[in-house]
Specification:
The complex is a heterodimer of chains A (about 130) and B (about 375). Helices cover about 20% and strands about 35% of the residues of chain A. Chain A has about 130 residues and is α+β, with helices and mostly antiparallel strands. In chain B, strand 19 and strand 20 form a beta hairpin. In chain B, helix 2 packs across helix 7. Classes of the chains: A alpha+beta (about 130), B alpha+beta (about 375).
Amino acid sequence: MEIPPGLKYSKEHEWVATEGGVATIGITDHAQDQLGEIVYIELPSVGDKISKDDPFGVVESVKAVSDIYAPVSGTVIEINEDLPESPEIVNEDPYGDGWLVKVRISDADDLEDLLDKEEYEQLVSKERE
Amino acid sequence: MADSAGKKTPLYELHTRLGARMTEFGGFAMPLSYSGIIEEHLAVRSAAGLFDLSHMGEFELRGPGAIELLERALTNSVSRLQIDQAQYTLMCQPDGGVIDDLIVYREGFDRFLLCVNAGNIEADKAWLAGLNSERVEFLDLSDETALIALQGPRAQAIAAPLVDIDLAGLRRFASAGCAIGGLRCRIARTGYTGEDGFEIFLPARDGGRLFEMLLDAGRNDGALPCGLGARDTLRLEAGLPLYGHELDRGTTPLEAGLGAYVRFGRDFIGEKALSAERAAGLRKRLIGLASDDRRSIARQGYKVFERDTEIGVVTSGTFAPSFDRPLAMAYVNAAASAAIGASVAVQIRRNLISATVTGLPFYRRTEHSNRSKDSSRNLKSGR
């Protein structure tokens, strides 16, 4: 399972990449693998406010519906427009073309609560036991 | 999500070796998928798929009172079965609510095999025991029996070289004792996918060997091992009910559209209630739904509205790979019009999503051919 360095991770299996106060958010390789083939994605709109730990979107595979939880609070400034038509991109490239939203972070302290690569690896291996 | 708690079927180690993603179903750790639900689904529609169904329950009933007991317990009439024939049937409470749906195989004049849902094994056993006058011998063979299904247009071509009987002569819902690659089995032309195919009962210890043998034999034909994920999408497209979704103790066979499997005039349990229901009219009926945006999935428990009135609830809904869009089944109350082609709405989370009412089944395979790849897709209003 791929867990790239340099990203932050949430316990709900989202990843966060930050640059100049903007967080790009997606779901991890482990999350997409557990879900199976993704067939539907519901994202917020540009301008929506999202709150840390609250659901802000939905990912559906053939079998199940899963909420996507906000790893940070902030305002949505961009969404991945390709996903409604081609949700399978998230399976194919979860850390690249399969990103979900970009958010202007309202409180940089939120990032402190997230996991680094090693901590997230531990979380995943525990879940796989 | 990777919940693999529960009882294990005799093929558990094989599933692990084949890289299956496991899930809990009916108290068993079962394969959800191997290569992916969509790929497995499409393999069954175009070639073949192999399923481990060893979680299902098998009861054998023997003795002079067996016919009498089953005539009383089941909605379809076992007296109509010839030896080596099978039928779909239901077991009801006195109020007509469904205890289980099952297939009964007549193995001899007064010997029957019942194949029941895994999650209902104990409830069925208790119910039948309560009806049994000591004359009928009742054997629960569930733990010692493996059940393997080979389904799809290539099923017969794949199995035929390994089987010591003429499969072409085995008609739908017929069964026969046979040997497959030297293993003693009972093979039946039955299934739960909407395709041609077979279900094969054999001793638990031989289940894994048969599965691997058929997988090898079918490899060049494109056969894939398939999990319960594909089984669910296949049965939904074929409009087949699943206990706990379309069927439960609060639903009658008539409401589920299964009147063809109810034989009146025999005094079976639930007959009075079902006769009264037939005379008075149904309280609810089963419909098909296709979401108009071709993306939103209406899942079990979601509410259905006609104009602004709540008219029913979704019982099963999923992405349907053969149609490349989501489909669902729902119960709507009798007062609702919800005619085929009508527009309704399904509440999906906070939104009302428009959907079109369709007939069932969504999918019907091309008749008169066990081999055709040209499957009919009749998801049209007006059918």
